[in-house]
Each structure stands twice: as structure tokens, then as C-alpha cells.
Amino acid sequence: MLDPYRSFRLGVAGPVGTGKSSLIATVCRALAAEMQMGVVTNDIYTDEDAKFLRAEGVLAADRIVAVETGACPHTAIRDDVTANLIAVETLEADHAPLDVVLVESGGDNLTATFSPALVDAQIFVLDVAGGGDVARKGGPGIARADLLIVNKTDLAPYVGVDVATMVSDAEGARDGRPVIALSRTDQNSVAELAGWVRQSVERHRSGEHAPIDPGPMPPHAHHHSH
Ligand SMILES: Nc1nc2c(ncn2[C@@H]2O[C@H](COP(=O)(O)OP(=O)(O)OP(=O)(O)O)[C@@H](O)[C@H]2O)c(=O)[nH]1
Fold first, then answer.
1. Where is the composition biased (Basic and acidic residues) (predicted)?
2. Which residue CA neighbors atom 21 of ligand 1 most closely?
3. pLDDT (tens digit, 0 to 9) for every residue of the chain, 226 residues total?
């Protein structure tokens, strides 16, 4: 039987500025009345994202904790997840029982995915402003995250992107895994996202959900400047 004090741990990754913090705020706003939630943010040297989420007032301030990752935020969610695991487990212990802990990846330009040692499932976030063809380019997050978000659909007319095409390109790269076109101003899309999270928490609890590793990102250099 699952440990009742073990939450559903849900990662949120994706390129810088695609709306990860905003999506987490949206999910908390939609679900905090019906489930117990916590958030862990990863930032390079600051706790900017945690501050933003506390300022949004969607959860009690002590349910949002920051992990400062140093130079390589992708390392902290994939290769050495210790600091993040401690943050998640501390939240789970302090606020037991939590239903879900959202973990936001750090804002570096590499599109890292989470290790399954840290999260049970992960959302990968793209936005229409990144260009309509980004979904076609693939990569582990786009191809194999549990859920892909095409975010900021309200901006599509201004950036010349056709949302339906971007979504069908993304679906083509994902072998049947779900894609949601999202805007925080479109309540139907917010309800669809909240429904996916709700169903994922239930599948995790019933033991139906099996965490997968989307796979490593492409080879890259680690710069050690200090
Ligand atoms: N128009 C529009 N803007 C959005 C939406 N979601 C987020 N944004 C804006 O996009 C910008 C980036 O959002 P964040 O949530 O900070 O993105 P992030 O991915 O967490 O950014 P980093 O942590 O720096 O990687 C902000 O100016 C948000 O207000 C949306 O649905 N529509």
C-alpha cells in the first residue's frame, strides 16, 4: 500500500519564460480548495519564483519553498536530486498529508526533464511565443513528458501562430500522450488542466500510474566558473 504521507510529486519543466510559475499558480488557484498542496521552486541564485508564487497568494506562504541550485539548475532536477527531495519530503512532513507537491524546474535555457527519482509525473511547458514549429523539434520533454502544454494561446494571433497546427504537431511527436492548449485567461483550458491533475493524483493513489523517465537532454557542457 502507498504511504499515505507520500504526495503525488508533479514536475513542471520547459524553456525560460514559457509560463511555468504562472501555470503552477493557476493549478493551485483551481485545486487548493479541494486538495492539500505544496510547491518547490528551483532558481539559480535567488528565490524569485517562490516569491512570485507567495505574492499570488494561492497557497499559505510556508507551503512554497525554494531550492537554490547554483550554476546548473538542470543538474538539481535530474542528476543530483538530493536538495529537491529533501525540500519535497520536508513539505510532506510539515503539512501532512499533502495530496500533491508541484516542483518547478529552474530557469536555464536547457530543456531538462526531471528524474523519476524526484517526481512521479511531469508537465512540459511550451508557449506560442516560442514559435509554431518548436513542437515539431521534439526532444525528451516534448516527446515523453506525461503532459505537454502549449501555453499562452491568447497571444497566438499576435505572434502569427496557429494553435490547432501547433497542437497537432505536438501530438504527432508524442505517440498519443496528452497535449493541452492553455491560457490562464481561458477558463475551459484551465478546467481541462485541473482535470488532468485531479485524475493523475487519483491514478497515483490507486497505484495505476507508473512514473517514466522521458530520457536525458542532448549532450551539453557544464561551465564551472567558480
Ligand atoms: N498572455 C499570457 N501571458 C502569460 C500566460 N502565462 C504566463 N504569461 C506571462 O509570461 C511571462 C513568463 O511567465 P512565468 O510564469 O514567469 O514563466 P516561467 O516559465 O516560470 O519563467 P522562468 O521561471 O523565468 O523560466 C510572464 O510575463 C507571465 O505573466 C498566459 O496564459 N497568457
1. 201-211
2. 17
3. 457 679 999 999 999 899 999 999 999 999 999 999 999 999 877 788 999 999 999 999 999 999 988 777 788 999 899 999 999 999 999 999 999 999 999 866 667 899 999 999 999 999 999 988 888 888 899 999 999 999 999 999 999 999 999 999 999 999 999 999 999 999 999 999 999 999 999 999 999 998 988 988 766 666 554 4
Residue whose CB lies within 8 A of the most ligand 1 atoms, among 21, 104, 110, for a mutation test: 21
For a ligand 1 pocket test, name from 21, 22, 51 the mutation site with the most ligand atoms within 8 angstroms of its C-beta.
22
Mutual angle of helices 20-31 and 187-205, in 10-degree steps: 80
User: 50: burial class by Cβ within 10 Å (0-12, 13-18, 19+)?
Assistant: buried
User: ipTM exceeding 0.95?
Assistant: yes
**C-alpha cell of 102?**
508541484
Ligand 1 centre distance from Cα of residue 156 (Å): 14
pTM of the model: 0.94
Per the CB < 8 A criterion, the answer to whether 104 and 135 are in contact is: no
